[in-house]
Design brief:
- This protein is an alpha+beta fold.
- It has helices spanning about 10-55, 75, 90-95, 185-195, and strands at about 100-105, 110-120, 155-160, 165-170, 175, 180-185.
- Helices cover about 35% and strands about 20% of the residues.
- A six-stranded antiparallel beta sheet has the order 2-1-3-4-5-6.
- The chain is elongated and about 100 Å long.
């Protein structure tokens, strides 16, 4: 009979375990609410800043010390053309502030477009590329269905100041795919004429 425990003897042990369990649950709930608060702050802060900013500066051009070209480069750059992609080949050549010719180097694991010629550069236009530089926007890792891998290189039409890529098309056998198979010799001729027309 001494070995038998009364129900009252196990009561404190059960209460202690329930108390431990309830404390652990409370800690988990607190940790969960802290996590929710952190996520709310992390995701909510940018939206709060955006709304405060939009109320304070409804037009980005009115921000002190900021220019409108941050969000609308075409509005202040007379060289930019939002409809450039739809222009005729001749008009593209005439309007471009710079035109680069690249060659596709397939010797490494990446296909690198290397600038081989500067066909046009308007006076006063900042151009951050020279012959021999890689043009990283067109370099790529080859894939099984690599459409750009068949060409010899690309012609890059640039707008703005500094000159920024606005349109590019590949060439093969000295003909430009995206310009109605116009020969490169014609592009060179039109680019030279366009450059001589500049003031």
């Amino acid at each position: 009979m001494d070995n038998e425990r009364s129900p009252q003897a196990g009561q404190p042990d059960l209460e202690r375990r329930i108390d431990q369990l309830s404390r652990a649950v409370r800690h988990q709930v607190v940790a969960l609410w802290v996590l929710v608060a952190i996520l709310f702050v992390a995701y909510g802060t940018p939206w709060v800043l955006f709304f405060v900013h939009s109320i304070r500066y409804p037009d980005t051009s009115s921000i002190p010390g900021k220019e409108s070209h941050i969000s609308k480069p075409a509005a202040i750059d007379e060289h930019w053309d939002n409809d450039f992609y739809a222009r005729s080949p001749e008009e593209k050549i005439r309007r471009a502030t710079a035109i680069l010719l690249t060659r596709l180097d397939k010797t490494g694991p990446r296909h690198r477009d290397i600038v081989t010629e500067i066909l046009k550069r308007k006076p006063g236009i900042r151009l951050y590329y020279k012959v021999g530089d890689e043009f990283p926007a067109l370099s790529h890792a080859p894939t099984l269905d690599c459409g750009d891998c068949d060409g010899q290189g690309s012609i890059v039409f640039m707008l703005g100041n500094p000159a920024t890529m606005a349109f590019a098309t590949t060439y093969a056998e000295d003909r430009l795919d995206g310009l109605g198979d116009m020969p490169l010799s014609e592009v060179r001729r039109l680019a030279a004429e366009s450059a001589s027309e500049e003031p």
